Amino acid sequence: MKRVLSGMQPSGKLTLGNYIGALKNFAELQHTHECYFMIVDLHAITVPQEPAALREQSEAVAALYIAAGIDPAKSTMFLQSHVRQHAELGWMLTTLTYMGELERMTQFKDKSAGKESVGAGLFTYPSLMAADILLYNADLVPVGDDQKQHLELTRDLAHRFNQRYGETFVIPEPYIPQVGARIMSLDDASNKMSKSNPNQGSFIALLDAPDVIRKKISRAVTDSGREVKYDPHNKPEVSNLISIYAQCSKKPIAEIEALYDGQGYGPFKKDLAEQVVALLEPLQERYRSIRESGELHSALRQGAERAAEQAEKTLREVKEKMGFILF
Ligand code: TYM
């Protein structure tokens, strides 16, 4: 059975972009693949985090994973910091990574732009991400479009290691959805929807109350004109909303265009809000009952034990090949 691995940062609230671009696929893939899903708390600290908030958000993401359909008995779901092999292999891969490669990463450029002091961890972040994936010899990595470049680097590092030390790592493939790989911000379709955007109206958080969702969608920026037409080049704002509609309703884009033909943006936005609410309301109910059940910690502990077993196997092989003395 092919292996899948992916992860999300517990920094801030997960958004509809996270869900459509990645999380939705996690649950689907677990029926056909052996899956590892992480909450990447070590990655989250590459920017300053309030300790209490980090704890809360890590639990929230774990609960959202389950609410979105991940079954911790079927998939291995765990916190990155619980499996120390990530930090260890991360360091080893950092030594194989070139400065130039890290300097080219657009996520680093975006996150460091205009900052006076930038943590070294933000720079070496992609080497740790490569370790996440390679520790489990994942074949497939479901991610949104913005992680493509990190995946390319992971593949390069795997090749580099294999060439230098002999065949060790599987070369992973990205698994990126055709529609919804890049959900854009509601206030400006030239930026991706992001949980770190200070304008709360620019994103829909998975835990936003239905009325908040309705309000945010009614205020979403639309292009001039009134035609509900998917044309990302000329109508980027409306095209983004159509992508969201398509993903929430599972309707093809052409059907959505036909449905609102000649009706203008008003009815379209109203229905879109209801589609999003219909998707998120049951997820939010499941989320609340998981948080209340108190079962999260035992699920995470079991996940960490299973993950560590596999991670240790790979790490020992890596250490042996690199020339470390093993006991
Ligand atoms: P993160 O936490 O920023 O995002 C989690 C996932 O959500 C996707 N995503 C989006 N997809 C569509 N539209 C959007 N607006 C949008 N915003 C976010 C991201 O592409 C991602 O798939 N580096 C990763 C976390 C990570 C990881 C890994 C992923 C660490 N190790 C190993 C896969 C495998 C990140 O920062 O994702």
From TrEMBL:
Its EC number is 6.1.1.2. A motif ('KMSKS' region) lies at residues 192-196. SUPFAM superfamilies: Nucleotidylyl transferase. Pfam families: tRNA-synt_1b. Keywords: Aminoacyl-tRNA synthetase, ATP-binding, Cytoplasm, Ligase, Nucleotide-binding, Protein biosynthesis. It comes from the Bacteria. PROSITE patterns: AA_TRNA_LIGASE_I (PS00178). A motif ('HIGH' region) lies at residues 10-18. Catalyzes the attachment of tryptophan to tRNA(Trp). This is Tryptophan--tRNA ligase. It comes from Paenibacillus piri. The lineage of its organism: Bacteria, Bacillati, Bacillota, Bacilli, Bacillales. The gene is trpS.
